[in-house]
Each structure stands twice: as C-alpha cells, then as structure tokens.
Amino acid sequence: MKKSACLFVLLLTLVTVTAQVPDKSWWTFSYAEKSTGNSLLDLRYLNEHFAGENGFIRLSTDGNSFANGKGKEVRFWACNGGSLAKDFNVKKLDSLARFLAKMGVNLIRYHGAINPKRQNTKITDVDTTEARNIWRCVAAMKKQGIYTVISPFWPANGHMGGWIPAEWGIDGYSGKDDMWEVLYFNDKMKEGYKAWVKYLYTTPNPYTKVALRDEPAVAIIQVENEDSPFFWTMSAIKPALAKMVGVQFSNWLRAKYGPSDDIKDTMTLVPIYEFTIPPRANVKNRLHDQVEFYAESQRAFYDDMVHYYRDVLGCKQLINGNNWRTASQSRLLDLERWTNSGADVIAVNKYFDPQHKGGPNVGWRVDPGDFYGAPSALKNPADLPTNIKHVAGHPMMVTESGWNLPNKYQTEGALLVAAYGTLSGLDAYFWFTPTAVNYMQQPYFTFVNIKGQHPMNRWSTSTPGEIGMFPANALIQRLGYVKQANVVQEQRTMKSMLNRDIPPIFEEQSFDPNRDFVVSTNKDQGKLSPLTFLTGGVTTTYGSKTDTALVSPKLPQLINIKDAKVASITGEQELDYRSGIFTLNTPKAKAVTGFLSSKKVFTLGDVTIQSGNEYATIEVVSMDGQNINRSKKILVQVGTIFRPTGWNEEATTITSNNKQLSGFKITNTGKMPWLGMPANGSISLKNKFVKKATQLDAAGYAIKSLKLQVNAGGVSLQLPADAYYILLD
Prior knowledge:
By secondary structure, the protein is an alpha+beta fold. It has 13 helices and 39 strands. It has 3 domains: 3-11 and 563-728, no CATH class; 42-237 and 299-485, TIM Barrel; 487-555, no CATH class. The protein is globular and about 85 Å long.
C-alpha cells in the first residue's frame, strides 16, 4: 500500500475514536405516557384496525413484495420482541403492543422454542407454555394492527434452555446439546418438529378462538432459526449424526452413479473448511458431490415443510424456510438461498457489529473493562446490514438486526435502514430486540456487581438512540417516501453454484477505501464493489442456462472512489464515507446523519439543515403525505449520542484475530437515566403553510412552542439543545 494510502487509513481511524462522554451539558432523557391529553406523535393510524382486517398477507403479483388479501401493497416496519409475552402479564403485553404501534411498528417476530424442555418427555410432546405465550402475543398484537411472524425452533439448545432426553432416540444427543443440522437428516427429529407445530397451528387460540392456521394476523411462518449444513456448525455435529449423514450420502451417491467399490456404506464427510476455498484437485469431484448432496437434502427438507404446513396442517400464511448465513458467503450463500427458495419468503439475520470484545460473557452483556471499536456504518459502508442480494420472485427480510450496544452511533441505523432498505426493495427489517414495555428503564443486570458497577444488556433495542428513531423512518418506509430501483440483475446456473464459483457480487465483501475494485483482480472478491449495494437493488435468479449479470451503465458514475462518495441511481441518497455523512433528499423526506460538524450546512432542495454537532441525525419528514414544501404537518426528528449517566471510556487499541483495532475501553458502564448529547443546529424550509413549531417529549406530548423565524418563502427554526421530536404544522 502506498504511503499516502496508509496515511489516509490512519487519519480515518483517528477520526472514529473520538470519545463522547456525558457531561453537565447533556440532557436527561425520560419517557412517560400521560393520563390526559393526546400524544401529537402517534402512528397507530397507519395500522389496520386489527391485523388481518384485509385478509392474509400475500405475495405481490411479481412475487417480490407483500400485499394484503385485497391485493394492495403492504409495507412493514418491524421488530422482534414477541417473546416478551413470556414475561409480561396481559396489561404489560397490551401496553407493549400499543407502544410499538404508536412508534410505527406493524410487524413483530416471536422468536422462541416450542420443543419440550424437560427430562422425561417424549419427542412429540410440546412446550404448552411456549405455545400459550405465542397465542397471547398474536392476540395482543392483532388488536393494535400488528402482524406476527412466528419462529418456533432454534437448534441452539443451550440458548433455548432445552433438554434432550435419551428416550427421544436422537443417537449421540442427550442433555443440553446443541442440535445443529439434526433436523435436516434425522427422521425422528422431523417427526417431533411436525408434532410441535401441529399443536401450535391447529389448536384453537384460547385468546381469539381461532387456530393459527386460520389466523390472518399471522403473516409469515418461519420454519426454524439459524441453521444450515453450509455453516461452520456442520463440523461440530456429533459422531452419530455424522455417521447417519454419511450413510445417506452413500445412498445418494449410489442413486447418482450406480454401484461402485469406491462408495462405502458410510461415507466420510469432507470438512466444511474445504467448501470455503478453491477446490483442490484431489478432492474436487468428491467435494462437488457432497455440496450437491447437502443442497438437495436441505432443499428437500424445506419443500417437505412447506407441503406439511400448507397441505397437511392447512396453514394459509406465507412461509420462510430459514434466515442464516454460510461458512463462505462468496462460495455458498447463493446455494443456501436456493435451498430456501421453494418457500415464499427469503430471510437472513445480519447485524452491524459494534466490534465488542471482552470476557466470556461478551455475547450477552457489556462489562466494565470491555473494549468496543465504535464503528459507524457511515465509514464502514460494506458492513451495512441492508447490503443484500435479493432472490427474484421472493420478498426479502432481515429477521434479526440492529446497531447493538455498546454502539454509540445508534441514531444512524433506522435512517439508513429506511433509506437503503427501501431503495433496494427490502421488505422487512426486524430490530433485535425490544426488552421493555417502552424504553428500557433498567438496562443493567443488577444481580452482577463488578466493583460497584453492573453489566449492561447488549441486545436491547429499547434505547433512545434506536427505538426512539422509529417514527420518522417508519413513515419513510411505510409510506414509500423513497424510490426503489435496481442496478444489478444477476442470473446463476446450478452448475456454477455447485462448483462454488464466486459470483460478480456477494454480501459481506471486504472494502478497500483506497482503490476502486469495481473490477477486481482479487480472485476471492467479486467483480463488483460492495458499494454497489448503496447505489440500488441487486437481484439474482437461480437455475438459468447461463451465468450473466446485467449491470446498469450508470454504475461507474455512481461510485466515486477519489472523493469517497456513493450516490444512488435514483439521486435520492448520497454517502460520503470519508467524512461519514449520509444525506437523503426526496420530495417528502429530507435527512442527514453522521459527523456533521465537518461540513455544517446541508442544502436538500426545500430544506437546509445546519449543525455543529460532532455527530447527529436530523430528519424532516412529511406526516400528511404531501411534499415538504406543501406539507401542513411535518415531523422533525433529532438524535445525537445517548449514554447512561456516569458512562466513561478511554481510547485504546487491542489486537484481535491478528488485527489491531482502535476503539475504547469501557471504564464505567454508568447508571440510569439516559443522557443525550445536546443538539446544535437549525433547519430552514421553503414552506408557506407551516405556522407553528411544537417541541414534543419522547412520548409525543407537547412541551412548549418554539419560535419560528419567518423569511421569504418559508420558515427557520433553531433546534433546542434537548430536541428529539418537533412537530411543524
């Protein structure tokens, strides 16, 4: 790398490790519903009177998106959190549903485990408590116009608290073993799974009197969560399962080639690592067969499940097979998605990584002394969770995601999801996960005390910087304020996928900001830069006769490596990934997010946003469906950085996986309440209809009137230091 390029990377790193620690100027965040008066920010009206009012959710005519029973397009703003029904009584669950609807949510996911979890059970027994909680969730959400996606099984048994009794007859598995890949190859496990979901979907819901199979408030059935023989977990299966798979592979080989002395009764499986590298000559044919066997086995499993749900149980909902990744996104992901494409909907779980490193508990909590890299997606565009290749003819969902704690740049997340997700045609993005009725008032695990401090829950989306940014972006997503457009239409043959050939573009490519590899010389990279995902939608079709990629001729002009800028093909989005600034400029939504003080003034058509904040997200969104210059009801939404009171950190570097990371050591996890960095800026808009500005609290109630400065053709407004929501009307 040239010296100048190294200097650029160093400067980029230094910019991203600035500490933002709360001081006396930061304002105190609070949330409280009032018994009197009306909230002026309540998006419940966007939802149906009750979920399923217009029939079951269906595929659109082209299969690429969702429609209701009357054929009208349905757009979703989604989150996880359905499993809170396990902990919430009726009143709290109803309050959660009402809060989510108010924030713009119309789709929730229940991620659970319907399998029995005790010793001395039969494999066909059901966790009836889990089933009842699913039914409670569906009923509560339905009343607020929120549809439900049900994910009833996750093979990570240790996470779901299950027990595998020996009497189940799953050879090699007992106790609290994880059950990766068992469901694909073990008929007894399939029998158990079918018994669980039969009970769940055919038993009348005691809270609605309707069996789930006939319940239009259930939008999508997810067969299972995060499992695939194409992932690294395949190397960790028990010997008994490996033998079972080896026997099935042997039978598959004999069916393909006929009897042969080279085909043993039990074939030894090539390790998954071999799937992730170019094929070596001595295992090339053998490896090709094993890849094909895995693919056909997994596809047959999901085809069977679709048949079981739809034809045997009579379920009328759309079906999604799985939501997982692979050991090699370049060589295996298209094949993985092909195995799921017999179902209606494709999905993936994909988070924006806060580069959180620490002790053995780092997967679920944030401890004092932990490290985090403090990345912003604005400077790491290849890592955006919306960078997804869609399968033509299928809606695409991200069923788990978020800018998880300890990420300090959470407020960018919802805007980027709404802007880039809608541009690319993403149909639902589920934030993971609400952990409270509204905002999490106690994000700490108080049963652990570390020198007077408590660890934080790293998975909560119930924070001011994440769930608080829902309203403006739910409006953008659900009302279609962003244009959708494709830039790449790819076709793949089964031959190339089974050969594990690298396609022109794939998800999770690395990105070198110092050179343009729109045409790459790296054999392990695609020919198209990952920045392509920020210019428009990327779709693929499986089973074509030839491998082709139709690329927009405008693509080279949309990616400007010299100036570090990427523009969408629609002209509505632009990202400066060197400065870390994103702008959205549509007739009905104007927004900017990032490290704003480096530029300060942003002119977006009829709106000018000025900000001296080191980091902030400022959005101006029409609430009445009119263009900003004619709207009579406009939401101004402001998010900066939110931290607990007393939070402290110090800049540091660590070595992880032989790479040096710059970031922060957390020296104090703080305590409640949340504090917000003061807003510093103003907005001006050309609109003759706006007559007043009202500052709202976090619950949407009026705090005070703000002074509008009337000028030629419009108005301007100085943002209060504690700006969060402002209503212009």
